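We now fix the convention by which a protein and its fold are recorded. Here is one such record, which you should read through line by line:

>
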Amino acid sequence: MRINQMQMLCLAMAIGLSLESRGQERASGWMPSPEMRLPVFVEVFGSVVRTVAKFDFTDGPQGWLPRHPDVKISCIHGDAGDGGILRLMGNDPSHWNFAVSPSIVVEPGHKYRASMRFRIESSPKGSRPIYFKVELVNDDKSSMQVNSPPTLPDKTGQWLGTSVEFVVPPNCHGVWAAIEKGSESPASIDLSIAGFTVEEIREFTGEAALTGGQLCGPITASLAHVHPRLYMNAQFLRERGQQINSDPRWAWARRTLFRIADAGLRKGPPDYSRQVKEDLDLSGDGSEEQLWQRNVGNMIPHLALAYLLSHDQRYLDAANQWILASLSYKTWGLAGCDGLDLAAGHQLAGIGLAYDWLYADLTPATRAIIRQGLQQRAGVMARAVLARQTHWQGSYMQNHLWVNCAGLATAGFALCDEVDEARGWIRIAHEKFLESLTQVGVDGASQEGYGYWEYGTEAMMRYMELAHDLLGINLYESRGVAHPGLELAPLSALYLALPRGTWTERQSLIDIGDCPRTHWYGPSHILHNLARRYPFSSQAGLAQWLARQTEEGDVDAVWSSHYLNLLWSDPALPQKAPGTWPTLYHFSDLDIVSDRSDWTDSASMLVIKCGPPLGHRQEQAPYDYGAGHVHPDAGHFVFLSRGQFLLRDEGYSHMKLTSDHNTVLVDGRGQKGEGRMWFDFAPWLTDRRSPRILSVRSENNVDIVECDVAPAYPQDCGLTKFVRTFRFCKPHRLEIVDDLEADRPVMFEARFHLEHPAHKVSGTEYRLDGGGVSARMCFEPVKGKDYVVTSENGGRVLSLANREKQQHAQWRTIIELVDD
């Protein structure tokens, strides 16, 4: 169905999408076709009921206050129309907000629009993007916030307008507004405000978005009022049950399913009060996300499917027990996370699947309890998205959006025959996933790391499968073109995996980004599904081979979503081992290079990372699409041999620091985005310079990778050149040459993090030993003044630095494997 621009505009507003992001250039050329969208409805937005608060600053600040005394507030009569102008100037060293308004009384359940006119007068050194924020404070002092899109500090000298809309939660009676920094780091401001208004508007927009739309495809025809229909129907279940019980190729999958279900039988669902107490004992304040509830949502489909395949009443009883326990939990997440984040996303998905799969075996009373519970919980999330009250709804490249929208849609598809607003849950998820598929990278890798690639991709494909089967919409391709990021995904699974024969329970993959060395979600079911959906891709056989290897190697994360293996796998698809694949591969969007000496278990392996946080396609992104799990690590690398790490990665860190990576500090400072628990994308919005891999080539069995790292550093650190060149002389020798220049004398420091303590041989040479692998590591000056090598953390960190400040340094680091 084709749609006009007005319809598209109304739909984007109703679902809460960023119109700015829709107009962005997409380098890959992959965009959703009109046929991939749902039938739209045109919604007329409401008029103002009353003005709740109006600040025109004619008689002073009217209660607005700076958060720090170094930020000064003044009022003048200005050129922006009637009223006065509030001027903010100065530097705030430590708060999230530059200035805040007095509290404004609002009514629970009502909808409001807060609007502001402002002008950025200048961009002082240390300026950051400007956000306008409304904080909604609940009676129990918990709060949630609604942010405007950021305004870049270079938009000076012009009056601009911004607004946000929000629905007041049931236990909230007051809000306040703020000029937001987006960080606790020091930042400067020079801003004028020419009026701030809060108005109540007619509260019908969200409900119309939930109930006013239509669905399409089998869910409205052959699958209407039919159960089961999510991922399978009754015929599929019968046929798959016969295959699983008779074909030995399914033995592992069947055995594993029942092992998980039996564990659920034995231990029963977690007790809410006991689990909350354990969280308090561990952390002192409890876990806001209550991530233990993810396992509750994950267990329920395993129990349900075990019952359907065995007809063993114990599994049905256990599924009921887990479902009712989940619905009885007082919260699905605490404070601002309650019902709005991962705990809710997992439980909506698990209970929604069980409701559909077990529909005929549930009593009417149990169905009513589940239906009511899902309607209440999913409704909370859906209305929060429409009111823009979730932190993740614009994070189109990030796992939280995918997991939560997949859960919302699963509940919607289970209930859409019985609950009118469930159609809206599906519509919200559908539009979010269309935008996500448009924005995500195209080289198959993830900026969040291998573990989050598994977690997020599974959730995205769970929705894509529902859309394929129930809406008749194939999101795996557009206009006959496969989605490049999905089609190429098996390559990231291959090139970021350790040599096959070295996989162990403790490590099997490269842990760059927020990632462990072990699997989180699968990836066997993900890879099986990619092989099934892209059977003619050159990666299909590789995906099938990798899936089987993770299963046979006993490194698959089966406790998360193993039930999908019995739904998404096709054992008849051919496998293709990677023996003939290139050993050198460049992920050109994220600028990650994976290089190994060969495909044997004794191979040496080098992985290099030197790209912008969200990839080159998003260098001009208008805001952060999901960089929280990125590390400030341009120029970083890991090196290993025979599955044993020599130079390592930090892994999943809870403070993102360049100093924790194998790259360079300048006067002790690291790269843009460091210094917080989650990567700070704001500096990349104001400084668009991006690091990149300049060239990747092979010459006479030597692989050469040249990186331009300098753009990753703040401009005020003075770094004008940082070219890092890797020469991998396969399989035994790695040379790294750093060429560094600054606009003033500085201290350059190259840091190297080792898997095992280094043993000093001389002032310039160390020996690395561990796991049966040994290497010599030595440092050679090429240009520049004298330098010194120091050892930290019991020999696990080596630091190469000039003895005194200088403008230019050039060093060569050599790592050479040795035979004992």
User: Anything to note?
Assistant: The first strand starts at residue 48 and ends at 55.
